[in-house]
Amino acid sequence: xxxxxxxxxxxxxxxxxxxxxxxxxxxxxxxxxxxxxxxxxxxxxxxxxxxxxxxxxxxxxxxxxxxxxxxxxxxxxxxxxxxxxxxxxxxxxxxxxxxxxxxxxxxxxxxxxxxxxxxxxxxxxxxxxxxxxxxxxxxxxxxxxxxxxxxxxxxxxxxxxxxxxxxxxxxxxxxxxxxxxxxxxxxxxxxxxxxxxxxxxxxxxxxxxxxxxxxxxxxxxxxxxxxxxxxxxxxxxxxxxxxxxxxxxxxxxxxxxxxxxxxxxxxxxxxxxxxxxxxxxxxxxxxxxxxxxxxxxxxxxxxxxxxxxxxxxxxxxxxxxxxxxxxxxxxxxxxxxxxxxxxxxxxxxxxxxx
Length: 354
Ligand code: FES
Prior knowledge:
The protein has 354 residues and is an alpha/beta fold. It contains seven helices and 19 strands. It has three domains: 4-82, Ubiquitin-like (UB roll); 90-185 and 332-338, Beta Barrel (Elongation Factor Tu (Ef-tu), domain 3); 196-315 and 325-329, Nucleotide-binding domain of ferredoxin-NADP reductase (FNR) module (Rossmann fold).
């Protein structure tokens, strides 16, 4: 017996007061974007199921502007909601091709996929191996703007408790098989005319970089303003990417570090300090630390801009406080030399972006 009705993408479905929008939609046989429930049980929502509330009311759901999370918002009466179309999930497998060092403690992982995963720039996939729990990672391009056929690139921070651990190159040698599923997430790049404001912290740059390249190649009329941040300036591994964007006509790209005082051209402070003045015509995509993502999304919503977040969910076993203290102490030592650029393995086929 239903208590009320929801209209989702034009379809009227029965709903019970207090159940989630996602549950009501799925009971009625509608598909909405969402992530693996086991991954989204964490305190940091993945943002995959954010949908637009057109009219009526729902309870909770972490509202940002006119949007709510369908897995958290509950039915509070009649409401009309819309979800954008999204690609179907593909379950595949992948093989580790190579690791390349990007910065001390951050590597690029290149995998060869068995089946193509039709992700949109900014969407994520899940990776796992054996019985280890799945984790989310955002596929991206290599930092020189190249893309490879049948391969996916990921930016991996070496973490105790993370899927790949502290020494991933030793544990996941070329040839290691991984489980892969996706794509997920609603925070992908969309077609549009307004300015794109792309903001990252840490390895959130992987999502931002794939959107920046896709925007320059597919929507060259759109101005791009990019802010890439890290706590430690040594983690700003994206300089080749910033140079590529400059060659493509992107004039506004800021690197900033909030920890040790960085040397120019890196600016001091968190990403929030270096945001441009936002306006309703902007689309703001932000990826990285959950607190930074929330702060930027709220600022964008206050300015009337469209906003999409990709929060990085920390590994459950990760000792966050210990890591921050360790990184603060290590940031006071003389900087480690930047890693030597490493060539791609010969079996990676490359094509220039069109
Ligand atoms: S599926 Fe709703 S926030 Fe992750």
